[in-house]
Amino acid sequence: MKRYRYIFRGLVQGVGFRPFIYNLAKDLGLVGFVKNIGEGVLAEFQGELKSTAAIDEYIEKKLPRNAKIESIEKYEIEPNFDESDFYILDSSKGKISTIVPYDLGLCEECKREFYNKGHRHFMNPFISCINCGPRYTMIESLPYDRDRTSMKEFEFCDDCKKEYYTPNNRRFNAQSTTCLVCGPHLFLYSFVEKKHIEGSNLELLGRVCYEIEKGKIIAIKGIGGFHLVVDPYNKEVVERLFRSKKREGKPLALVCKSIETVKKYCNVSEAEEEIFNSPRCPIILFEKKTDDFLHVNGGLHTLGIMRAYTPILDYILTKTNRDLLIATSANLSGIPMIIDEDEALEKLCDIADFVLYHNRKIVRRCDDSVGFVLKDKFVLIRSGRGFAPITFKLKEKTVDKNILALGGHEKTTIALKKEDEVILSQYLGDLDTKEYIDFYEGSLKDLISLYDFNFDYIACDYHEDYFTTSLAKKIAKEQNKEVVFVQHHLAHIYSCMLEKNLQSCIGFAFDGTGLGLDGKIWGSEGFVIDGLEAKRVFHLQYYPLVGGQKAIKEPVRLAYYFSKIISPEFAESFFGENEFLHQIFKTAQTFNYPLTSSMGRLFDIVGVLLGCGEKNSFEVQIPMLLESIADRNESGFYIFLMNFKHEIEINIVDILQQIIHDIKRNINRRIISAKFHNTVAKIVVEVAKVLRENYNKDIVVLSGGVFQNKFLLSKTVSLLEGEGFKVFFNTVFPINDGGISAGQVYYTLQLLKNC
Questions:
Q1: Distances, alpha carbon 20 to alpha carbons 12, 144, 278, 313, 531, in Å
Q2: Between 428 and 247, the higher pLDDT residue
Q3: Rounded to 10 degrees, what is the CA torsion of 221, 224, 229, 235?
Q4: Do the bridges between strand 195-197 and strand 186-190 make them parallel or antiparallel, or are there none, so unpaired?
Q5: Active site residue 665
Q6: Running DSSP on this structure, what letter comes out for residue 6?
Q7: Mean pLDDT throughout 92-104?
Q8: N or C end of the chain: which has fewer CB within 10 A?
């Protein structure tokens, strides 16, 4: 008789792991127990065992589909002859280091039961099991047990209790288990009638479907917040949604039932299909193959589509017989997504016609995740439902200190380095309003509490005017901690280096804005990095940010300025007699505007010149349109000269001069856009070749918001690989500013390693 103790670490809570271990023991005729502990799952197996081989083989072959084991600690202990069975015991908290489970989309088994008239879960809007349903958004504390979730308010009926405690049932120990008898209920409020609509769950869902077909806007409470659900085939209601949300053409997310629907409108790769069908259910930016839904996607070349990840969304699609529905976040400009029904009833009265909500509390706000697929890898643009919290296992544990990283200012996230893990929060927004700052501060407290986190160092952006930087200094002073200031673009590169476990590379960080170490506004930075040592070796030649911060939203200021310098005749004919722009140009002759090397602003300028608009109604609107019009078959590029005076520099005037020349020649703007994209990719390659020669490095890292441009990223990777470089880009943390906090962690680790 032998007894073995196992400690499983990884994604082993909220994925049916304890029931799996229970059934393992039963199948192998073993006694003992299994329970959640703070750092994962603890199990003890006892029986007539020569070794652990049978247990290990069972685990390897039958591991639950959503479980992910990071490590297994096992050893033999003394037998306990008082046991006669195998038990699932109550959890013990202990230290918290387990991977917190993310929310999972509706599984096929639950979907079949939902539509099965003979099943007890028929039309249960909250149907779920060990393989699907809310997790992160309903957890109040760890370990992951029902009494530590928002489901604790709903006491089991006899049938649910039986499912929950029956070992061979799919809902055995599934914390989100509930039914029509004992679970949450739906409520429907009509802003038109100014009252709640009476009816059963099914009747209310039927009314919602009817109103969507009539062209109404419905706010629906989901897993991580409210969506606004609209019929995308009704152009009038879509236009009304744009107006009421003040989105002005910002693409709206779509939801559908199956990948076959996506294939009707978009090109779909095998990797995209796999991610679409996965339990994560992110919004995937698919390349569209039709001109359908131009009124929904702002005229872009992509459609953002996710799988219906809740029974309610799936049912509405089925009942309305729509291929697709709009399901966009319910929030006002500058305010985080709404998660509370009282707030929804108060703030959505001028947007929605009805509010469908339920009485299960959303513990933490979590937007839908967004990204695209490149080289069979998913590139995150926004980390949210299905991905957050991201837990990354460090390849080596060289620093014992814990680190809190507060991120940047836009697309903010928070990162924790705890022991041998880096944990990244969900998307926390742009910290321009009190509401987003409150959300950020609340999320910071929540993460620290959830992970029982104590830190030794706090990392933040180098920019002193960022709220996160001020907060870091405030916390450091209060708690007597040391602050590590990390330059913005270095943090971009280090975020990817962390993912790939790199110590040395050539790194390119292209974005719109980040304070440089010389006090200027950086945005097109090339580095040579060895551990902590980072040398800036490339950037676009500095140019004046005409209009200052206003140039970001109104890049026509910059476009006119450079047009006037390059060709006054072209400027007058292209922009017309515009006294406002003329005055801006005159001011720029005498006023010392801040200098920038921003690649993002260059994309803005070219976009204006190619007729993609004069103002960014939302962030990177013009660069997105510029990417959309690019001819994918064009291989030409513009000539550029590298200045080797100090760092390698390239003057954007030379490139803009050639673009204006092509515009004068009436070259198709699709060709010009493609040549410009190719030029930026070519710049990276030619600079990298010089750096390889000078520094003997052949690893290139690409990061930063400009590389959200899939066409540019794909072209750059392809050209670099064609020159023999090993190329890496973010595939774990967001490639934009959402990955900054992770980069701050890795930079701080390098700093501490060298202390």
A1: 10, 16, 21, 30, 42
A2: 428
A3: 150
A4: antiparallel
A5: no
A6: E
A7: 75
A8: C
Q: Where does 419-554 show beta strands of DSSP type E? A: 421-424, 457-461, 482-486, 504-515, 521-530, 533-540, 543-544
> Given pLDDT bands bounded at 50, 70 and 90, which one contains residue 177?
very high
- pLDDT digits 0-9 by tens, 602-632: 999 999 999 999 999 888 999 999 999 999 9
Q: How confident is the model at residue 16 (pLDDT cuts 50, 70, 90)?
A: confident
Of 715, 726, 730, nearest in space to 683 by CA = 715
Collapsing DSSP states into helix, strand and coil, what is residue 245?
A: helix
Residues in the chain, total: 755
Q: Are 422 and 436 in contact (CB under 8 A)?
A: no
* Longest CA pairwise span in the chain (Å): 95
Please, what is the angle between helix 652-664 and helix 568-575, to 10°? 60
Catalytic-residue membership of 146: no
Q: Are 266 and 293 in contact (CB under 8 A)?
A: no
Contact between residue 323 and residue 110 where contact means Cβ atoms under 8 Å apart: no
Pick the closest to residue 413 from 434, 389, 392, 393 (CA basis). 389
Tens digits of per-residue pLDDT, 434-478? 999 999 999 999 999 999 999 999 999 999 999 999 999 999 999
Distance separating alpha carbons of residues 393 and 9, to the nearest angstrom: 11
Average pLDDT over residues 734-740: 98
Which of 9, 18, 360, 385 is flagged as catalytic?
18
**Helical (H) or strand (E) element with 469:** helix 467-479
Q: Which of 3, 9, 23, 36 is catalytic?
A: 36
For β-strands 354-358 and 543-544, DSSP reports them as unpaired
| Count of Cβ atoms closer than 10 Å to residue 582 Cβ | 15
**Tokens 């890049």 belong to which residue?**
555
Determine contact, residues 642/686, Cβ cutoff 8 Å.
yes
Indicate yes or no: pTM above 0.90: yes
Per-residue CA distances from 733 to 221, 272, 576, 599 (Å): 27, 18, 45, 21
Output the six-digit token pair for 499: 């993912």
Nearest to 208 by CA among 334, 342, 78, 313: 313
pLDDT value of position 96: 60
